[in-house]
Each structure stands twice: as structure tokens, then as C-alpha cells.
Amino acid sequence: MPNIKQPEASHYINGQYVEDNAGTELVTRYPATGEVVASLYAATNSIVDHALTAADAARASWAAMTGSERGRILRKAADIIRERNRELSVLETLDTGKPLQETLVADAASGADCLEYFGAIAAGLTGEHIQLGKDFAYTIREPLGVCVGIGAWNYPIQIACWKAAPALACGNTLVFKPSEMTPLSALKLAEILTEAGLPDGVFNVIQGYGETGGALVDDSRVAKVSLTGSVPTGRKVYAAAAKGMKHVTMELGGKSPLLIFDDASLDDAVSAAINANFYSSGQICSNGTRVFVQKGILPEFLARVKERTQKAIIGDPLDEATNFGPMISQAQFDITLSYIQKGIDEGATLVLGGKAHHKGGLYVEPTIFSDVTDDMSIAREEIFGPVMSFLPFDTEEEALRRANDTEFGLAAGVFTSDLTRAHRVVAAFEAGTCWINTYNLTPIEMPFGGTKASGVGRENAKAAIEHYSELKSVYVGMGPVEAAF
Ligand SMILES: NC(=O)c1ccc[n+]([C@@H]2O[C@H](COP(=O)([O-])OP(=O)(O)OC[C@H]3O[C@@H](n4cnc5c(N)ncnc54)[C@H](O)[C@@H]3O)[C@@H](O)[C@H]2O)c1
């Protein structure tokens, strides 16, 4: 039975909690049982305006601070997050239903890593000097201004930190809108940033549904929008941002391929396939849901994946022994089961799972299909649930062609012990984030993001700096100015 985790108020603006109960009610439930965790209100127009006004007012003084000063605050926030990791992880588990076993290591912890990373490099964010004969030029790296972050529900605090840390390190201010399904942890992040010394108004959180996100994107005070969400939402937000010629980062969906060649270390490849499909009950954008296996090893590989998947411990996410939890919502539960039905109807062979779990609630069994063909819905569309599809292949050329035959381009992975092949395959992948002999590792030091319909821009690493700052070029004339007449 989860404790009610009612925050002081729904929104956090200008360093304090703010409420406006004229907004639409926004209730968050523990996905394992349906119990209410907190009840909040979506932002009214006046809350949206309040948040943007605060972010706009805080802009100049925050940008005027040195990178070292800004970085120190971010690093302090990272330390506080680490101290409170368990409390934040429990909150994330209540909000998302993800097993505590996962949230203890992957959510707030990744957020802390991100704040620490950008806190550490903030002091070194500079322009450059360009000698031009006796003249020279230099560039000034400037913040963009007021940024808007819009989050998905699968990694709430991680997404908030992945947007806040680079934005703030570069001297921007941010208004963050979490997913309406997971409103809680971003408020905690706001509290922690204030405690770490962040000036009021630099990081603000407002709650709401898509229309609140839309109102933020449309506001003329906003210079940049970073969205983590689905491709259809991405198309809308990108189009709206284009009207104001705003910068964007789009972290969208995927249908990523994982190629297993017959010379791969099978145990490692089996582990990776399991991680790539069943971690967070399959609710991960970069999941390798199309598992292409070279024909000779397919029976053995399939048998091993099935045997290991049967050992999943499905249970209460708050029990640390549980390693497989429920779907976030009724909608995601229904979508997943409907795709499983489509897989059966379109002729794939159901190897394991395929049903709602007998425990009730929003649990869907870890599900494995074999004999999947490229044209089936389960091989083409993002399910965002625990559904693994096996597709046999013969040659490298064939596997690559089929792997790339998708509108998405978020991620891709390859397992082989042939070093040359590994790099050749990765070079040919049409995907922004690739793994060789592992899958789904996303350290802050490595850029993350997609190509094709999966997105625009990169999060994390030095690459993110380019998406939260812009260069002003200054030409300095050192000699006489000549004119034709
Ligand atoms: N590439 C990545 O880094 C990444 C990470 C996690 C999730 N995702 C993707 O996110 C999706 C699942 O998350 P979701 O269901 O929350 O996605 P979603 O697209 O439904 O919603 C994402 C966010 O956008 C907001 N939103 C919806 N309509 C809007 C509009 N018109 N204007 C502005 N904001 C709007 C929502 O309120 C929410 O906060 C999947 O497709 C998944 O692949 C991508």
C-alpha cells in the first residue's frame, strides 16, 4: 500500500510551490494497484504565464554568473540527489510502477550523473579565437534564453535532469512540464535545486496535459523547446516551434534493431536481448524490439531467451526482489495487449507470455514472438511494452537492409566477435545511438538521440552544449578600412 505522496502544491515557480485549483484535476496512481499517489491540478493560463515570466526575469542574472558559479550549484544538487536516492527512487516507483530494483540505480542516479557532468564542464564553456592574418575574430558562446522542457512518463526525473543540466550550465532558464502521468519527481528536483542555491525562477515546473505543453511552445518568450515523447507529438511540437523559429531537441520513439550474428557470445547476447525488451517492462524508447538472429543459432538463442525470461520476478514494484513491473497506465496496457493480438492475427508464433498477468492490475507478461516478418505490425510500429520479436536472417547485407527499413532511427545494436564486421555494421546503421556487444547503456558522457523520425539533436555529453547555446561571431579589424571610392 503506497503512502500518499501529495506535494505541497502542483507547480513550482520562482523558488516556491504555487497552486491554482482552477486547473483540470490531474491524478497520479500507483500502476501496480491503481491507488491514488497524489492529486494535482494542470496549469491554468495564469500559471503558464507566471512560470514564463519568472524564467524570463531570472534570465539575465543567471546568464551573467560565471560558468564556475553555475556549475557549483549543479554539482551540489547532484550530491543532494545522491543522498536522497532511495526516497526519490520510491517516489519514481510509485509514479511509474517501475521496479524499485531499477529506479534505485537508473533514474535519480542518472539525473545526478547528468547534473554532475554539466556542473563540471560549465566553467569550460567558451567561444574560440580565430586568427585572420592581422585581423582576427572570436566567438562568444551565449545562452539561448528561456527554454521549455516537456517530458515523457517512462524516466521522469532522468528526463528532467537531462534537460535541466545542460540548459542551466549554458546559462539558460527552464520551464519544465513533466508528463501528466508522472508529475512528482520534477517537483522534488526543483526543491533540490533551490536547496543547492539555484536562484529563484531559473528552474520552474508546471503540470499539465498536451495543451499546457502547447501553450509553452507557442509563447514568444521561449527560445528553445526540448521534447521527449512520441513521434506524433514530436511532429506537432516541431511544427509549432518552427512558427517562432525556435531551437528544438526532439527525443522521440523508435523501433530499433538488434543484430545477433552466429559468432556472438550467446550468453551476452541473450542478456542484452532481455535488457533491450523487458527492462522497465519494455517502456524504453531505445529498446531493441526487432531482434534479428542469424539462422544457424536461432533455435538455441530462442530457447535460451525463453528459459531466462521465465525466471522474471513479476510482483510489487516496491519489493526489491521484483524485476518486472506493471505497465504505467490502462492505455499502455491496452495498447500492448492489442499489439500482441495483432502479432497472433498476422501469423507470428507466440513463444512465451502474451496475456495480462494473473496477478491482475496492469501487468502484461513478458512476451516473445518468433517467425516475425518485416511487414507485421509488431515489427513496424513502436509498442512501448514487453514484446520481443525474433526475425531470422542469413547474411549481413540482408540484415542491415532490413534493420534500416524503418521510419525510425533512434538506436541499433550488433553482437559479433568479428571486430571488423562490428564497425562495418555500425557504420551502416541508420541510427543515432549504437551499441557493439552490449545494449541500452546511456552514460551521460555519450551523446544520445535519434535520426530520421526518431528525433533532432542530441542530449548529454558535450554535444548537448550545441543545443543549449549559440555562437555570436565578432570580427575585429586591426588595419585601415578600404573602400572602392
Ligand atoms: N528518444 C527518447 O529519448 C525518448 C525517451 C523516452 C520516451 N520516448 C518516447 O516517448 C513516448 C512515450 O511517452 P509519452 O506517451 O509520454 O509521449 P507523448 O508524446 O504522448 O507525450 C510526451 C509529452 O508531450 C506532451 N504533449 C502532448 N501533446 C503535446 C502538444 N501538442 N504540445 C506540447 N506538448 C505535448 C505530453 O503532455 C507529455 O508531457 C514513446 O514514443 C517513447 O519512445 C523517447
Automatic annotation (TrEMBL):
Listed EC numbers: 1.2.1.8
Top enzyme class: oxidoreductase
GO MF term (any one): metal ion binding
Keywords, alphabetical: Metal-binding, NAD, Oxidation, Oxidoreductase, Potassium
Catalytic residues of the enzyme: 251
Record keyword Oxidoreductase present: yes
Domain Aldehyde dehydrogenase residue range list: 18-474
GO biological process: glycine betaine biosynthetic process from choline
Annotated InterPro entries: Ald_DH/histidinol_DH, Ald_DH_C, Ald_DH_CS_CYS, Ald_DH_CS_GLU, Ald_DH_N, Aldehyde_DH_dom, BADH
Family the UniProt entry places it in: Belongs to the aldehyde dehydrogenase family.
UniProt-recorded name of the protein: Betaine-aldehyde dehydrogenase
Organism: Celeribacter halophilus
